[in-house]
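We include this case.
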Amino acid sequence: MSVIDQFILFLISLIANTFSAFSGGGAGLIQFPLLIFLGLSFSVALATHKVASVALGLGAAIRYWRSSRLEREFVLLLLFAGLPGVVLGGLLILHVPDRAAEISLGLLTGSLGIYSIFKPQLGQQYQPKNRQRKQFLQGGTVLFLLGVINGSLTSGSGLFVTIWLILWFGMDYQRAVAYTLIMVGLFWNGTGAITLGMLAEIRWDWLPALLAGSLLGGYLGSHLAIKHGNRWIKRAFEVITLLIAIKLIAG
């Protein structure tokens, strides 16, 4: 790959991951299709994208470390509920018809954005709820299913985690995005990268530019989210979900 190609990859990765870190997910909207457009097969592009996405979580963690306090129970819940789902999703993806899964995911993703648009106060205030053991287990079951989506399909899985943390646990957008970027970006995507790396080839020569763009984009997008707050994060979330829905349904 030439220097110009590496620079193009870096710019695309920077843009995709900046928007992803600001809205709480969606880096795959731009980055993953680009890898396929540049000649990688679906499985190779997915594995390569997963590895690069880990840097998004790292960049976000560096920025959020100074301003956010993650609660231990949610960290453990996201790890123990989500990671088995990620592994299962990575094992299943090679056996699932791509088109049917993409259309279904597109319709569901678009519904999230529409729902948020018609709920003006959604995620604007931190209102803790569903914190009892039974409710935690119910929330964890959904996170397991979202882990399966994360391990198998790359576009928009983080957005589902963000909105679920808001709807079920009463988080605001800024707090939910912090959990999504750090836990999903670092640990879920890291696990998915390992799983897919054992099943498919990874283009290591493409990764320097992708990792650099993901790391810087994760930090920059997180900085913008902290600076501008819940209102702007909500708007970015709605735009990204609708764009991802259009992209998945249109193919």
The mean pLDDT is 85. Residues 104 and 249 are 8 Å apart (CA to CA). The two ends are 27 Å apart (CA to CA).
